Amino acid sequence: MFRLPDGIISILILFTMIFMAPHPVKPKDLRKFVFISDPQMSPDGSKVAYVHTTIDYEENDYVKHIWLHDVATGRDTQFTSGPGKDSNPRWSPSGEKLLFLSSGRQPEAKPELYTIY
To answer: Which of 59, 61, 113 is nearest to 86 (CA)?
Structure first.
């Protein structure tokens, strides 16, 4: 199965937003953009874990956290927080655990594997 890289998809979404915007997009508008990537459906199909990325202009960096979408209610909930960059959410086969990579409390550290029950 052919799959576009996440970076290409983000660029396509960005260009779509720019050309369909009701007014010209200015650099400060980028602060409001939210990028969604790497959706992972739970084994029972009740939840979707995904990476939610925003831009932090004060720190000249981006913020990546894991969010959960409840399919039944349509509600989104932030699952991780803090200064680290969280990525690659994956469900255990039973769906009881969610694993992801994170740099933890040290944003410049190498990512480590975390498990949440």
So the answer is: 113
Q: What is the pTM of this model?
A: 0.74
Q: What is the spatial distance between Cα 49 and Cα 116, in angstroms, rounded to a whole number?
A: 12
Q: Positive or negative, the Cα torsion across 58, 63, 68, 73?
A: positive
Is residue 71 within 8 Å of residue 95, measured between CB atoms? Answer: no
**Mean pLDDT per 10-residue segment, the chain (117 residues):** 60 66 71 87 95 84 91 93 89 95 79 86
Whether the CB-CB separation of 87 and 38 falls below 8 Å is answered with yes
Parse the chain into domains and list their residue ranges: 32-116
